[in-house]
Amino acid sequence: GGDGSNNTPVGNPVNNCGNCNVPVYTAPVLEEEDVEYTIPPCQKLNNLFNEPDPNLKAIITTLKTNIDVNSTGEIGAVLKKGRPTQYLPATEEAQINFVTNNFAYTFIHTHPLNAYPMFTWGDVLTLYELKNTTSKYNHLKGLESFILICKDDNGDFQTYAIVMEPGFFNSLDLIFKNKNIPRFKNMEPADIAKALDSELEKKYKNESNNTSADYEKAFLQHLSSLASNVSLYKANVSLDNWSRVAVNTSTQNTMEIPCE
Length: 260
Hints:
The chain has 260 residues and is an alpha+beta fold. Helix content is 32%, strand content 22%. It has an eight-stranded mixed sheet with strand order 3-2-5-6-7-8-9-10, sandwiched between helices. It starts with 5 loop residues before the first strand and ends with a strand.
């Protein structure tokens, strides 16, 4: 039973956390205008910093304290339109449950110290499911985002975000709904994400062996090999602005392009 909401467990399968029993939901059929409805990512994310309620900076500051005291689990929060922020209790494993409904528009979660400090395909699937829900409600359209708080290899806290750029949702539809990748033809979305995370784990592991690991590049390059209009955003230390992280085609190094 229930009220029709989607319960989307989020984990870090690239760290063997399990994430094996993820419920699967069929993406609703969307009108073309709904699919491409979007707010510019920089504007969307900076609005989260600029709006007094919810106070995203305070939320991030609160959640990140869990990383040092809970080395294997996660903690999270849900931003809801016209409702108080919902804080989710800390878990013991690198997995947390989010519920999509007619109020939720942004999910925030931490990665533990034993996880790679970057998004996973499981996280991407969660954003995809969130978009499936927000697109049904006029007051939520275009607001969806998924935020990650983590600690990098240097011991510094980082805050990242992924959002739905125009075209990104369509390409995820092809992967998770239409199963256009032959090797995933008979697999459910959760299993597809798990398989892709196995591939992504190899990329992250290779980076971890480098003197200066670039997990941002590994994430962007792996997603871009399968999906279009992939983007990654990173908050500054003072948590009052974002930059788009991109791979320089000449140097193959990542660079940050500040939001204006």
